[in-house]
UniProtKB/TrEMBL annotation:
<dbReference type="InterPro" id="IPR051791">
    <property type="entry name" value="Pra-immunoreactive"/>
</dbReference>
<keyword id="KW-1003">Cell membrane</keyword>
<feature type="transmembrane region" description="Helical">
    <location>
        <begin position="132"/>
        <end position="153"/>
    </location>
</feature>
<keyword id="KW-0472">Membrane</keyword>
<feature type="compositionally biased region" description="Basic and acidic residues">
    <location>
        <begin position="175"/>
        <end position="188"/>
    </location>
</feature>
<feature type="domain" description="RDD">
    <location>
        <begin position="4"/>
        <end position="166"/>
    </location>
</feature>
<dbReference type="GO" id="GO:0005886">
    <property type="term" value="C:plasma membrane"/>
</dbReference>
<protein>
    <submittedName>
        <fullName>RDD family protein</fullName>
    </submittedName>
</protein>
<keyword id="KW-1133">Transmembrane helix</keyword>
<dbReference type="Pfam" id="PF06271">
    <property type="entry name" value="RDD"/>
</dbReference>
<feature type="transmembrane region" description="Helical">
    <location>
        <begin position="12"/>
        <end position="33"/>
    </location>
</feature>
<keyword id="KW-0812">Transmembrane</keyword>
<dbReference type="InterPro" id="IPR010432">
    <property type="entry name" value="RDD"/>
</dbReference>
<feature type="region of interest" description="Disordered">
    <location>
        <begin position="172"/>
        <end position="195"/>
    </location>
</feature>
Length: 195
């Protein structure tokens, strides 16, 4: 099977990102709302002062005590939702919803078989676990960006760092109605130099 193109991989990832974002809006929404309630007085006053040209930090309202815990809870829940969305589907068929829609699939380098739970977890953890570091000055986001663009510099297999760790490659899935798709039946006229 031919390797999947960069555009198809990016679009599939964006679709998956949208699905995980929707899941987070439903499951994590209350925690996000509470976090903004804890930080809103500080943010409102800081913005008001910035608009007035005042750069002083004295007398700003304190951020609520629960803000730090809520931030960690939001990131842990977001990471868990991403794991629950991606790993089981990748383990069984090598495709998330985005990959299925774009007709691409992750397969092991050594055989055309399902990834299995261990390999799917290794693949996901390289790009998913840095989500827990987003609150550290964006370090997690930087690590995820490096992972994502690494496929642009890998030749000839176009493997991102998460593909390298799990020993996978992303391929284009042929259409069922494609005449070049291999079939299970024997070819009536074998190819080669036979007369």
């Amino acid at each position: 099977m031919p390797l999947a193109g960069y555009g198809a991989r990016l679009l599939a990832r964006l679709i998956d990102f949208g699905v995980v974002l929707l899941l987070n809006a439903v499951v994590n929404g209350w925690f996000v709302w509470r976090y903004f309630e804890e930080t809103a007085p500080y943010l409102r006053e800081a913005v008001r002062r910035a608009m007035a040209g005042d750069s002083s930090r004295e007398g700003l309202p304190a951020i609520g005590e629960q803000a730090g815990g809520l931030q960690i809870a939001i990131l842990v829940i977001a990471t868990a939702l991403w794991f629950a969305y991606e790993v089981p589907t990748m383990a069984s068929g090598g495709q998330t919803l985005g990959k299925r829609l774009l007709r691409i699939r992750a397969v092991p380098l050594d055989a055309d078989q399902p990834l299995g739970f261990g390999r799917a977890t290794r693949r996901w953890s390289t790009m998913g676990m840095p989500t827990l570091l987003w609150f550290c000055c964006g370090l997690g986001l930087l690590l995820q960006f490096v992972d994502a663009v690494s496929a642009l510099f890998d030749h000839p297999l176009r493997q991102a760092l998460h593909d390298k760790r799990a020993q996978t490659v992303v391929v284009q899935v042929p259409r069922a109605d494609d005449p070049d798709t291999p079939t299970d039946r024997a070819d009536p006229e074998p190819q080669g130099d036979t007369p």
